[in-house]
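Record type: ASSEMBLY
Status: queued
Input:
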Amino acid sequence: MPRVTYRSFAAIAAAGALGLSLPGVALASGGGGGGGGVSAPSARSTVDVAALYREGVQQYQAGEYSAAERTMRKVTREVRSNAQAQYMLGLSRMAQEKWRPASSALKKAVRYDAENHDARAQLGLAYLQQDKADKAAAQMAELDERLAACGEDCGPTLVAAADTLRTAMNPETATEEETAALYAPVPVTFTVDDGDAAYLDAVRLINIGHYDDALEKLGDAQAVFGPHPDVLTYIGFANRKAGNYTQAINYYSAALELQPDHVGANEYLGEYYVELGDMDAAYGQLAKLENICNFGCAETDELRSWIVKAEAKSS
Amino acid sequence: MACATSLSAPPAPLALPELNWFPDTPDRVDALTRLPAACLRPAPSAEISAELELGALIFSSPALLGGQAEKKGLSCGSCHRNGRSNPHFQFEAISGPAGTADVTSGLFSKARADNVFNPVAIPDLALPEGRDQVDRTDRASLEIFVRGQIEDEFSGDPPTDEMLAPLLTYLQYIGGDAAECAADAPMGTNWQRDWDDAELAAMQIPVSSDPLARAFYIRTARLSLGQIHDRYNAPSHAEIRAALIDISRNLAAGEAWPEDTNDLRARLKEGAQTSLYNADALSRALQLLEG
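Status: finished
Output:
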């Protein structure tokens, strides 16, 4: 049975060298460094969480599971509610057969992202290794519920995750090798180029209004870059445009938690306030952007334009 | 001039917008410090000459294109440097080989997005390959073409007549003497060029009768100051950066361009060798950035 990798990175074509992977260059949403006269980012802490996450992924890919676990622990201490970081922490522990701590991280991964199907399958595997068949069955039921909802249109990730857990729960249906393979370390094969390509494709999809497809790509980008403020900002934006307002505000907040001066997140949060009719809060965001952008920025102009149009409409 | 920032301040981050479209190739430093010659037909009058300067300024302002392009620092002049071509241009997901761009990419345009990756060679506007795209002697046709580029290809706001007139004149004058077209610009990129752009834009603010054009010139002046700021990123340039920020913030607050800029210009001149306008300094900075 093939091993499951969260989201299908093999299908993503490798791209060039630019993108979120190159320090000092931010490719979208105006995040990152000082390009165009934007002042330097002032992160909440001195920890570059996205860089730390990438380090952890590299350690995992090199088979250094203990080091990967330590690094991912640092990441999750900074961004506890980041599902992807919890998932990678869980995988690092699964690879060391630390079933109980693995289930603790994977539980958080599915709590913060109920659609991370492989995290759910891995959680089920971890429960089985702790002789908690009832809890594994509960995860299987969640996967089956999703399979029933999508019918013949289910994505390969969901199908593979369900197959993995079902086989583990019914070992008599598989050979010994197949059962053993279920517990082998999950291969994580993506590269930063994959992440860049996914991220840029997501921006393109957002621009043409395909928000659900964009969210899929942003999930791929997040798997590579972890809790990166540019990615979090666009996940928030795409959710807002898709009508998922609670998710939107959560992701904007997560981006601003990591980088309070992120121009994209501040602009989109301001636009969200305009949509809510909270003009005082929108003006607050505008003032913040004016303070951040020493030489002006498109984000300030766009938010100002939103405010002007909203006020003209209401008067 | 405010001189509040300590000389021991750390360098500003190296974040030139041009790094988004100049890939890591041996000739990147050249591309970032040199320009092709403008190759314009001679202006028949001082009035046209002034209009050409203004048109070139508008052509090179990211504020004209708006949207994602402006956020990335892209202007018409990014692909058509000095109104020519850009054989080094390579923007991820937009370019194939260097010097190409997908002009129907959804990354910049909703109206023209065709969901097919089909980059084309960026034409030199001074040569027949660029001149044949539209009959530039017919101003009405040229206007329709240019509006289409701004509003459809880049999702920019419609330019006002005040902004469009010098831009069209500039485009009509591109394509001159063959020998001049084959040369490099005598000065390449330098602080004086960006400073002149900032000052020229700022001078339009009080004389502009159109609020949208006025806002555009404020934004363009500030962007040009920002370009200088980004290239003076050494710790020893801290006072220069602070002074540039002061001018930018004052322009945004409705104040005029400062009357006396002699001191700042002297500092810019003095610091030019260690600024990122200098090829050696830029080369070192890029090496540091990339480890």
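Annotation: Residues 133-150 of chain A form the longest helix (18 residues).
Annotation: DSSP finds 15 helices and no strands in chain A.
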